[in-house]
Amino acid sequence: MGIIIIVYFLFSSNAYSAFSSCVDKKECWPEDSANYISLQTAEDIAKIEKEIQTAAANLTKKMASFEDDHDFMIDVVIPAFLLQQSEGNRYVKYKCGLTGVISQAGGSWPSAHILECELNEKRTQLEGLIATAQCIDRFRMPSEFIDKRNCLNRIIGDK
């Protein structure tokens, strides 16, 4: 009977609500725990996703400004680039999900591994977008449109 009272007290008191409101806060977990790492990594992913959106929009504007190749960029390259960005995110989710599953880690660690993989992939994506934009910026003359177009190889994985 005493155990039932204690369990009832825990689930009906402030102790339970304090615990349940703390689950999604990284400060409630030890820094080396899977939950802390997952929450921190999720924050990092949210930040880098904003940077990726900005970098992709910037790169789209640069591609649209190609004077000698304008129609081709607008009709073919930019739509393909935008599709690559969205489908790439889906691919990363599956790839990293598989990474977490095959890690054979216990507890909450597979989730932490999945998020760390996603963060690494997003960092690589952002670096590619920035490098491509910087490459395009090196070519100012309209006659250099072939060189500008070659810069786009960075976003399709050919460095």
Task: Kindly summarize this structure in a few lines.
The protein folds into two domains: 1-30, no CATH class; 38-156, no CATH class.
How would you describe this protein?
The chain is mostly helical and 159 residues long. The chain has 2 domains: 1-30, no CATH class; 38-156, no CATH class. It is 75% helix and 0% strand. The chain is built from 6 helices and no strands. It has helices at residues 2-12, 14-22, 34-64, 70-102, 109-137, 145-151. Helix 3 (34-64) packs antiparallel against helix 4 (70-102) and helix 3 (34-64) runs parallel beside helix 5. The protein is elongated. The protein starts with a helix and ends in an 8-residue tail after the last helix. The model is unreliable at 1-19 (pLDDT under 50).
Terminal residue distance: 69 Å
List the helices and strands in order: HHHHHH
Number of helical regions: 6
Residue share in helix: over 70%
The biggest beta sheet reads: none
Keywords:
159 residues; mainly alpha; 2 domains; 6 helices; elongated
Draw up the topology in text.
Blueprint: H1 2-12, H2 14-22, H3 34-64, H4 70-102, H5 109-137, H6 145-151
